[in-house]
Amino acid sequence: MLRKIGFIIGFLTLMLTEANAQTVQVEQTLDSINGIFIGQQAHITVGVTADEGAKIVFPQWKPQTYLVPGVELLAIDGDTVSADGGKTTIKRRLTITSFDENLYPIPPVEVKVGGKTFKGNQLALKVITVDVDTVHPNQFFPPKDVQNNPFLWSEWRTPFLLSLLFVALILLALWLYHRLKANKPIITSIRIIKKILPHQRAMKAIDQIKAEHMTASEDQKEYYTRLTDTLREYIRERFGFNAMEMTTPEIIYNLQQSGDKTMISELKDLFETADLVKFAKYSTLMGENDMNLVNAINFIDQTKLEGQPTEERIVPQLTEGDKRTRKNRLTIKALLWTIGVVATALLVYVIYSVVQLL
């Protein structure tokens, strides 16, 4: 009988604890979604919603200290309190800045409510830089006066003669091109085998995603489709199973069976987020796209196999006549390239000279 009573009391305590946890919400947001420039300020807002009268204790932040390495905490605004329907919401705003270009993860804030600890959500702060001319900081060019220069043949003689030389080179290039077309090329089957390592191919695709700033794109479905396809292709080439045709649980299971447990939890969260975005129209949280991109890069970097790409060139044997024909064609091509470079330089110089004279 006493055991039954103890079981009922424990069950009721557990239910009350769960109900209390559900009544507490900790929301952590960052106002700079697309990142900030070096030295610019951003704000993190931490909001806690709990029952009215509950004791809420925030962390003891100190201004002029580092929130995380590289991110400085400048100021802490006072609490903003609001009440609605028996609930109390307290918000605190942190002003931060950074002077190093990087993508900084902001860990979840731990808040105590009624003696119990609750956590917010993780954020990511992107800091970008602006190119500055540090070589000539004091080089200024004043405006030029208006000039009325008279026409002098001595000034125009050189551009005119070089223009005639340019026309002559173009005519010579056309004649050589006609000769090149008259000689049929030697068609040979040259096989070039070049293998790029899986992690090099994957990082190239991720660099393209970053170059297109897809983490900040409104089309989250396209971003996660390209990111997960890159990871699936890398897993297929690196671990030897067809991840392109597998679901997320199957991929995680096969990775565990292969003996590799590197960043399995982060990779699982990334694929599950991608599935929600692609099939359930889920909208990611602020900074979640950047964090998933960082996790993908870390997974590739920690599981890659080092080695150099291999290349093999197979050239067929040619007859003496074929060799002479090829040599003539190569000579003509070299002349055409030389003429093209010289003609381009002449054209640029003539245009520059004429602009200076006008």
Biggest sheet features: 6 strands, antiparallel
Q: What's the gyration radius in Å?
A: 34 Å
Spatial gap, N to C terminus = 108 Å
Q: Give the low-confidence spans.
A: 11-21
Would you report the number of β strands?
14
Which structural class should the secondary elements be placed in?
Answer: alpha+beta
Gist of the model:
With 358 residues, the protein is an alpha+beta fold. Helix content is 46%, strand content 21%. The protein is built from eight helices and 14 strands.
Question: Your description of this structure?
Answer:
By secondary structure, the protein is α+β, with helices and mostly antiparallel strands. It has eight helices and 14 strands. Strand 10 and strand 11 form a beta hairpin. Helix 3 packs antiparallel against helix 7 and helix 5 packs antiparallel against helix 6. The protein starts with a helix and ends with a helix.
Question: What is the fold's blueprint, element by element?
Answer:
Blueprint: H1 2-22, E1 25-30, E2 36-37, E3 41-51, E4 56-57, E5 65-68, E6 71-76, E7 80-84, E8 87-97, E9 102-106, E10 110-113, E11 116-119, E12 123-128, H2 153-182, E13 191-194, H3 198-211, H4 220-239, H5 248-257, H6 264-279, H7 288-303, E14 311-314, H8 320-357
Parallel strand pairs: 2-12
Antiparallel strand pairs: 1-3, 3-8, 4-10, 5-6, 6-8, 7-8, 9-12, 10-11, 13-14
Helix pairs in contact: 2-8, 3-4, 3-7, 4-6, 4-7, 5-6, 6-7
Keywords:
358 residues; alpha+beta; six-stranded antiparallel beta sheet; three-stranded mixed beta sheet; 8 helices
